[in-house]
Specification:
With 185 residues, the chain is an alpha/beta fold. The chain is built from four helices and nine strands; from the N terminus they run E-E-H-E-E-E-H-E-H-E-E-H-E.
C-alpha cells in the first residue's frame, strides 16, 4: 500500500519508498540561511529538482561520495547533505564522518549539516554521529518537495563542524524557534 508516495506493507520496514532522492523543502533551507546567509557552499547529493542552489554541486553522476568536498570551500563554508535514503545511507554516513575528520585534521574550517531520518537504532545513524558536535530533532514530519504527504518518520539535522561554532549556534537558535530539540554531542 502506498501512503503519500511511501510504501507500507506486511513484513516491510515501517515505511520505505522506491524513490531515494527526496528534495529538501524550503523550511529546512530557511533554517540553514539563518546561520549561513551566503548560502550552501557544497551539496554533494544534488539533483535537477533540488532548490538548494549551492555554489558547487555533485549529482549522482558525479558520485559525491568520492569527490573532494574541501576543494574550493570558502572559510566557514556550509556543506549541506540530504543523502539518498534507503540502503545508500550507510555508505553516506561513513563518508560524511570520514570527510569531516579529514577536513578537521587538515585545518579546513567548515560545517557539514546532514538531513536524515531520526533512526537512532540503526548502525548508519551511529556511524554518522561519529565526530558530530550536535543533533537537531526537527518538530513534526517533513514534507519533501514533490512528496504527496509528509514523510512517515521524524527527521533530524546532524551537525559536524570545525571553526564554525558561531554559525552553528545561529542554526540551533533558528531551529529552537521552530520547536526543534537541540542537543550538543
Amino acid at each position: 500500500m502506498k501512503v503519500g508516495g511511501w510504501n507500507r506493507g506486511p513484513g516491510e520496514a515501517i515505511f520505505s519508498s522506491d524513490k531515494m532522492d527526496w528534495c529538501t523543502p524550503a523550511r529546512i533551507l530557511n533554517l540553514l540561511r539563518a546561520a549561513w546567509p551566503e548560502g550552501v557552499s557544497l551539496d554533494p547529493c544534488s539533483n535537477l529538482s533540488s532548490i538548494v542552489c549551492p555554489a558547487k554541486a555533485y549529482t549522482v553522476e558525479d558520485n559525491g561520495l568520492v569527490q573532494d568536498w574541501s576543494d574550493g570551500l570558502p572559510p566557514q563554508g556550509l556543506i549541506y547533505v540530504n543523502p539518498p535514503y534507503g540502503k545508500a545511507l550507510d555508505e553516506w554516513a561513513t563518508t560524511i564522518a570520514l570527510k569531516h575528520a579529514a577536513m578537521r585534521d587538515a585545518g579546513v574550517m567548515h560545517a557539514i549539516v546532514t538531513l536524515v531520518p531520526a533512526r537512532t537504532d540503526t548502525q548508519w545513524f551511529r556511524s554518522l554521529m561519529t565526530g558530530a558536535e550536535g543533533i537537531i530533532f526537527l518538530e513534526g514530519r517533513i514534507r519533501f518537495l514533490g512528496g504527496e504527504a509528509s514523510a512517515p518518520f521524524p527527521s533530524c539535522l546532524i551537525v559536524h563542524q570545525f571553526g564554525t561554532i558561531t554559525k552553528v549556534q545561529k542554526l540551533a537558535e533558528a531551529c529552537r524557534k521552530e520547536g526543534a530539540l537541540v542537543f550538543n554531542a
